[in-house]
Design brief:
3 domains; 16 helices; mainly alpha; about 280 residues
């Protein structure tokens, strides 16, 4: 059983992180079908629990019933503050591997192209997205991009909204061909998403097309003018991001500020150019 321990973890009851790896190794063991369903019910109950202690108790029970419960593992990971970045990545790789094995090769053949549309595939997709995020936060941008590319191959509709971060990573890495291909895959995004709008301006500048870059800046200003202050560093990204946003809103600008900053910060000349044509008032 995963038990809370006494520690200063920012208000979250931590867990016995040493037991995580051992318990995850049990996840390949076959469990009765009834236990799988009961485990998932415990997970759903945990998501509605009112206290951290109750959350951990229910998640612990979920993993006792089914050590391979992907959703339960993902939440457990958020309660493991003592893990290093490398340990988190290692754990998430194992969780993804277990989820993939549970789905089986046939699922990847049958559901490819519409992977999010099937209930049984979603835990795997959530786990893989969590791995991509952990890699990104650890500074492993190339590996993070590869994970997202794999996810988008399975589900081009991108219900998880991963294309926005991927676009920022591509520009930060100077991967222009991949950037343009992503533009082509989602041609309607420029009028509705600030990352696409502002990254388009950066891409045109880096491509040596100043006139087109100016037009792209004007379009980006129209789509979401609030983003400019973040990407130029005039406004700090809030610690607590909004739970939702509308296209063109201040909330949208805040939610995507980090991705835009990563892209533009990698190209100081572009930021200097943008600041010159759009001086801070």
């Amino acid at each position: 059983m995963i038990r809370p321990q006494d520690s200063d973890s920012g208000g979250k009851p931590p867990i016995d992180t040493k037991s995580l790896f051992l318990q995850l190794e049990r996840s390949l063991h076959k469990v009765p079908p009834g236990a799988v369903g009961e485990s998932q019910e415990c997970y759903y109950d945990a998501m509605e629990a009112r206290t951290e202690e109750e959350v951990l108790r229910l998640l612990s029970r979920a993993l006792e019933l089914d050590p391979g419960n992907t959703d339960a593992w993902l939440v457990i990971m958020s309660h493991a503050p003592m893990l290093s970045a490398d340990e988190v990545i290692e754990m998430l790789r194992k969780i993804v591997a277990r989820a993939e094995e549970r789905l089986g090769a046939q699922a990847f053949e049958e559901f490819a192209g519409h992977f999010w549309g099937f209930h049984e595939t979603r835990p795997y997709m959530r786990a893989r997205a969590a791995l991509a995020d952990a890699l990104h936060r650890a500074g492993r941008s190339e590996s993070a991009a590869a994970e997202v590319e794999g996810i988008l191959e399975l589900n081009p509709g991108d219900n998880q909204g991963l294309r926005y971060r991927l676009l920022g990573v591509y520009l930060a890495l100077g991967r222009m061909d991949e950037t343009r291909r992503l533009f082509g895959r989602y041609p309607d995004e420029f009028d509705f998403n600030t990352v696409f709008a502002w990254v388009k301006a950066l891409e045109r500048f880096m491509s040596g097309q100043p006139e087109e870059a100016l037009k792209a800046v004007a379009a980006a200003e129209k789509q979401n003018g609030f983003s400019k202050s973040y990407l130029l560093g005039h406004r700090k990204i809030p610690k607590n991001l909004p739970d939702s946003y509308a296209s063109g809103s201040k909330e949208e600008a805040a939610c995507f500020a980090a991705d835009l900053q990563a892209a533009w910060n990698a190209h100081p000349a572009a930021k200097k150019w943008l600041a010159a044509i759009n001086p801070k008032k």
